[in-house]
Amino acid sequence: MKNLFFGTNLKVTKGGRCLAKDLEFKIESGNMLLLNGENGSGKSTLLRIMAGLSNPTSGKIYWNNKFVHDNLPEHFERITYVGHSTAIKSNLTLKENLKYWQEIHIGGKDISSQLEHSLEIFNLTTSSDLPARCLSSGQTRKLALARLMLKPASLWLLDEPTVGLDTAGLRSLITLLNNHCESGGIVIMASHDEVRVECPVHVLKTDNFKKG
C-alpha cells in the first residue's frame, strides 16, 4: 500500500511574519520532496510543521487522508526528524548517543547490529567510544544522520542534512535516501545543495511561496 502525505491551504508564519499562504504539497511513497530556497524563506519552519512540532496558522496536513493533529503520537511514530540542531550530547560517546536516542524512540529493542552498521556506513566505527565533543562539525552531522538507520519510519524529514558532509559522507547519505525510497519510504529534505538520487524528486521552491 502506498502512503500519501499532503498539506492543503497552509499559511505559515514566524514571529508575526507571513512566510507562505495558500501553500499545497503532496508526496507519496518512493518519492522525495526537496525544499529549496534562500535562508529565511520558510524551509525549516515548514519542516517543523510537517513533523507536528509546530502548527500552521491555518490549513491542515494529512497522512493517508487522516488529519495528523488528530493523533500526533501516531504521527511521531511514523517520522524521523533530523533538524538543524543535531541534539548530540557532547559528554556521551558516539555509541552512547545512539543508544540514548534508541531508548527514547524505540524503547529497549535490541538493535545492536543496526547501531554498529549505522556507525560503519558513516565511517564512525573507530571513533565510537570517543566523547561526541571530540567530533568535527562534519562528524557530528554524520552521527545525527546515523540515527536514520535505527528507527523504522515511513517519513524522513531532514533539514539541511548535507551541511558539513565530506564526499564520503554525502555518498553515504545518498545511499540511505535511495534505499529508503526504494523500500517505499518518503523523504522531505530542505537543502541548498543538489543531491543526485535515483528516486523521483519533486522540488518546492520556498522563494516562490505566496507571501501575505
Report the structural category: alpha/beta
Shape: globular
Q: In which range does the helix fraction lie? A: 25-40%
Query: For the CA atoms, what is the radius of gyration?
Result: 17 Å
At CATH's second level, what is the architecture?
3-Layer(aba) Sandwich
CATH topology: Rossmann fold
How far is the first residue's CA from the last residue's CA? 38 Å
Give the count of structural domains. Answer: 1
| Strand coverage percent | 25-35%
- The largest beta-sheet arranges its strands as 6-7-8-3-9
Main sheet record: 5 strands, parallel
Under CATH, the homologous superfamily reads P-loop containing nucleotide triphosphate hydrolases
Strand and helix order? EEEHEEHEHHHEHEE
The counted number of beta strands is 9
CATH class: Alpha Beta
- Rounded mean pLDDT is 91
> Low-confidence parts lasting 5 or more residues at pLDDT below 50?
none
The number of helical runs is 6
